[in-house]
Amino acid sequence: MNKAFPGVMRKLIEEFGRMPGIGVRSAQRLAFYVLQSSREDVASLTNSIREVKDNVRFCGVCNNLSEGELCSICSDPSRDRSKICVVEGPSGVIAMEKGGVYRGVYHILLGALSPIDGVGPDELKIGELVRRVKKEDVSEVIIATDFTTEGETTALYLSEVLKPFNVKISRLARGVPAGAVLEYADVATLQRAFEERRGV
Ligand SMILES: [Zn+2]
Description:
- The chain is of the alpha/beta class and 200 residues long.
- The protein has two domains: 7-55, RecR Domain 1 (Helicase, Ruva Protein, domain 3); 77-199, Dna Topoisomerase Vi A Subunit, Chain: A, domain 2.
- 42% of the residues lie in helices and 14% in strands.
- The protein is built from seven helices and seven strands.
- The protein has helices at residues 7-17, 24-36, 39-55, 90-99, 126-135, 149-162, 187-195, and strands at 57-58, 65-66, 80-87, 104-108, 140-143, 168-171, 198-199.
- The strands form two sheets. The protein has a five-stranded mixed β-sheet with strand order 4-3-5-6-7. It has a two-stranded antiparallel sheet with strand order 1-2.
- Strand 1 (57-58) and strand 2 (65-66) form a beta hairpin.
- Helix 1 (7-17) packs across helix 2 and helix 4 (90-99) crosses helix 7.
- The radius of gyration is 20 Å and the shape is elongated.
- The structure holds zinc ion.
- Zinc ion is lined by residues 59, 61-62, 64, 70-71, 73-74.
């Protein structure tokens, strides 16, 4: 990195550079953006970061983002607790909710299996899902992981570990094209994929 930058500037670029998807050039651009912003804007940004860290956590049941012990879906008494829809991340919940056809609850894995990246079952919230299926009165688990290699691998693995339990296991239909990430699927496609879900 350019040694001509003051130390604190280099430090900020380094911090931004650790963020996902941010390379050195983007990190420098963000640091210059901060430098040129007003004091108020910078205060608002740092406050937002602190508030997220202080107030947002993972739901104690489903791992969705939450401001309390339970997320808004787990604490909604009108949701059907006998159905659990499994997604990779909180953005999967947002995608499914946009469809508006699903009234059950969720389980967020916080990732997908990826042996190349060293992500195995223990790195994901799979044990917690199995415990929920064992303990709660669950009739159906709908696997809505992405239609990527990692998502498909995860779906296959989940259908294996859930097989011993007396629960219907289904996978979203392939209305969503191969390689597609749930988050970017349009509402109609997602609704159809949900309605045409198949047992696995
Ligand atoms: Zn929850």
